[in-house]
Every structure is written in C-alpha cells, then in structure tokens.
Amino acid sequence: MTKLCVSLTEKDTDSLLGAMRSLPPEAELAEVRLDLMERPDLERICAGKNRAIIVTNRPSHEGGGFKGPEAERLAMLRRAAELGAEFVDIELDSVAELGELPGGTRTIVSYHSFQRTPRELETIMGRILEKSPDVAKVAVTAEDAGDVVAVFKLLERHAGRVPLIALSMGEEGMPSRLLAGKFGAFLTYASHAVGRESAPGQVSLEQMLLMYRFPRIERSTAVYGVVANPVAHSMSPAVHNAAFAALGMNAVYLPFKVSDPKAFLESFQPYDLKGLSVTIPHKEAMLALMDEVDGPAAQIGAVNTVVIRNSRRFGYNTDMAAALAAIRDAVRRAALEPLSARSVLLLGAGGAARAIAYGLRQKVACLTIANRTVERARRLAAELDADACGLREMQRCRPDVLINGTSVGMWPQVDESPVPISMLRKGMVVFDSVYNPIKTRLLAEAEQAGAVTASGLDWFVNQAAAQFELWTGTAAPRSVIEETLRSTLAAQ
Q1: CATH architecture of 321-454
Q2: By CB count within 10 A, which of 89, 317, 360, 482 is most buried?
C-alpha cells in the first residue's frame, strides 16, 4: 500500500519535532529537510522522532537549500544513518560518494528534473537501478497534465519489482501525487500545510486526507476531474469529492491544468478516466473531440461535461439548464411568472452568457444582450433573434429580469458591479452568475433596492449536480454539494 509522507520545512529543531508530533497516524513517514533548516540538531531529531523519517539534504544545484561543502553535506547524511534514520535520500550523481551507510538505514536514490519530463525516463531508471537502491525515486516536471502519464507508465513497469517513488512536479503534475496509490508507488509526499510545500505542486496533508481521501485510492478507483487553464481556483474538486464521499463511491476528482485537451484525452483516457468538467478556455475546443454531443451542447457550441463510456466520449452542456432553473426559481419567488411574459437584459456575450442566452431562447417576451464589445453582442443576438446594445445604452432598458453573465464582481475585484444602482428597483429579478463571493456587490445593491436575487451559487450547484448524475447515473447529494461550496468559499 502506498505510504503518505509529509515533508517538513520547519527552520529549527524544536519546530520540526513539534510539527512531526502533530501529524496524524495516516502520515506514516516524515521527510526531514536538513537543507532548509538553520543548524539542525540531528541527535535530537533522531532521538525525538515518533515515526519513520526520510532525511534529505538537497544541494542548491539540485533544487535544494544546502550551499556548503559537499563533504559536509554527505557527512550529515551519514550521521543521520548512524543515529537511526530509517531512510536517507541521496541524488543519483552523489550516491557513489556517499558510500555504504551503517545500520538498517535504507537508501533512496533520486533523480530530479525541474525543467521538463525527459523522454529518456527508462534510461534514467536504468541508471538508478545500477546503484542497487533500496528505493528508487524519479521526480520530473510536468508542463501539461497529460505529461503525468509518463510517470504512470514508469510505475506500471517497475513498481512491482523495486520500491519506486515516481511523480511529476508543478501544478500540472498534481494528479501524479494524488494517484500514486492507484499505480503502486512506494509513497507520495504531502506538505504540512498550504504554503509550506517543499516542492512545486505538493498537496497539503489536510487536502490529501479530507478532500481527496488519499488512503482510499487504489487500483480500481475511477478518475474524474476538471479540465481548465488556470485550474487552481476551481471549487469543483472540493464539491465533487465531497459528493463521492457522501455516497461511498470509489472515485476521485482531480484538477487537470491542460493546455492541449486533445493530447490530454488521448494520453489520460486509458487510465480509468470516466468523466470531466470542462471550463475556461476549453469548452468550445472539447466539442470537436467528442464521439457524440447532446442537443444543448451542439446548440451552444460548447461542452462543459464529458462522460467516457466504453471508450467513447459523450459531450454535454449542463450550464444552460442549470442557469435556467436558477432564473425560473427567482422569477417564481418574485411572483413574476410566467417567464414567457417577461423582458430580460443579459450582460455579456462570452461562454457563461452564451449558455444563458440559449437557455432563454424563445422562453421570454424580449431578450436584450448588452456587451462591452457591441459587435460581439450583435453576433450572439443574431443567432437568437434577440436585441443587442452596448453597456451605455443598456441604462435605457427597464427589464423585469437582469442577468450578469460577465465576471465583473468576481473575487478579488469584489468592489465592482457591472450595473449602476439606478437600474435596480423593487420587484425585479437580479441573477448574478458569479459565485465567488456568493453575495456580490451587484446582489447586495439589488437587495437594498428591493429586488429578488439569485446568486451564481444556485447555478453552480445545479450544473454540478447534473454533471454528477450524468457520470454516475445516481442522484446527486445536492445538500452536500451546496454545503461544501459554501464552506470552501468561506474558508477561502
């Protein structure tokens, strides 16, 4: 079973021992980064440890913090072995100089590439094996989420013959750390806390255990995720992993930072990839990569949900129906039914606005699309037989329903609003597609004016629940999804 090792980056011995003793039992090992410490006391560290430790003293030219003489660096590793450290991590090019270690200390022979994922990984692995390591380690850098497949292949070929740590560094390489247990890696690393990473792309221990349920990931775990660039801001891993946990499903949902969706799908699909959420900037490009596309996705020209079944890719768009449901609910609460009798002003002509516009098509008495670039609004309006105008002209409108389909007001620009207060009035409906923060400035000002409001949270929950049901064929735990989204946003 793949072990979980927490890399400790504390500067002094007391702090390091305190951090180690605070670790839960799920963290079977702790990595002691001597190169990041000021005057480490090896005797106290080894005498005071409460679990197996890996002692690392990485030189600066290998991406570490040690800048002293090589003889001194290696002497510290030998001393750690003499004092009872269970593992010592030594670089491939330095293992000969380290020599044989005393006692029962096991040697991790490691190779690092901080620029790329070398094509010659098999050759590198062969060089490591020539040193007869107790544990082999290969850490490379991913430039796209699909690059981690090279690491998976290395694990598939060698993990059954020699204890092997193989991972991809960087945000793009995060899936390799989370799926280490699926491919039989000897261990994977976690940081002690967010902001305390010892290498790019490390996931915090709390997220490993609570969000991703790392100890439960094994060979048959189904893989889902969100394809985006950037992806770090996404709330989807939190909500979908919480949904899987609530229903006891053997599945995990990961963040995939992807530049080339076609290359990603072709490389990652064979590794139990069952479904994807798709967001900026890949919704339109993903459409052409599907074997089948449902009606709303074809109409909008964008896919936000992928289901992979029997090696075939099915594309859907859950945004349209999810937004329409949130808007209809607000219209009902405002006693403005039926929606078909109402005038709607939609701000924006991008991906979110496009889905909303198609959802409202032929369902309202009058639809006007307002956008900063008027020509873009006119193009979308022409597709839908709607009206179009610029942001200045929109102030002449007196809509029953006002919808913000832009990112204006999204964190961290929370003091912005796309609409002047003068347009807001009692009895109208105001829907904001932004969900971070839950109550935007637009919604706060709309409530003060007496309008009935709906936030992007309602939309997010609706589309996420629809995605979950498409992937699993099981009713989504909507309350879990909403509660998780609220708590994650509050914590952020």
Answers
A1: 3-Layer(aba) Sandwich (3.40)
A2: 317
**Which residues of the chain form CATH 3.40.50.720?**
321-454
| CB-neighbour burial class of residue 382 (10 A; exposed 0-12, middle 13-18, buried 19+) | exposed
CATH topology of domain 241-317: Rossmann fold (3.40.50)
CA dist., res. 363 & res. 319, Å (int): 16
The segment(s) of the chain belonging to CATH 3.40.50.10860 are: 241-317
**Assigned fold of 3-217:** TIM Barrel (3.20.20)
End-to-end CA distance of the chain: 33
Of 137, 182, 192, 240, the active-site residue reads 137
Rg of the chain, C-alpha, whole Å: 27
Residue 411: band (very low, low, confident or very high) from pLDDT cuts 50, 70, 90: confident
Q: How far apart are CA 178 and CA 202, in angstroms?
A: 9
Distance of CA 314 to the CA centre of its chain: 22
- Which of 144, 319, 400, 432 is the catalytic position? 319
CATH 3.20.20.70 residue window(s) in the chain: 3-217
* pTM recorded for the entire structure: 0.93
192 is catalytic: no
Residues 50-83 have pLDDT tens digits of 999 999 999 999 999 999 999 999 999 999 999 9
Annotated active-site residue in 3, 49, 257, 283: 283
Those residues with Cβ within 8 angstroms of residue 473's Cβ, 6 or more apart along the chain or in another chain = none
CA 315 to chain centre: 21
Query: d(Cα 30, Cα 20) in Å, to the nearest integer?
Result: 7
Q: Is the peptide bond before 261 cis (omega within 30 degrees of 0)?
A: no
> Is 137 an active-site residue?
yes
pLDDT tens for each residue of 99-120: 999 879 999 999 999 999 999 9
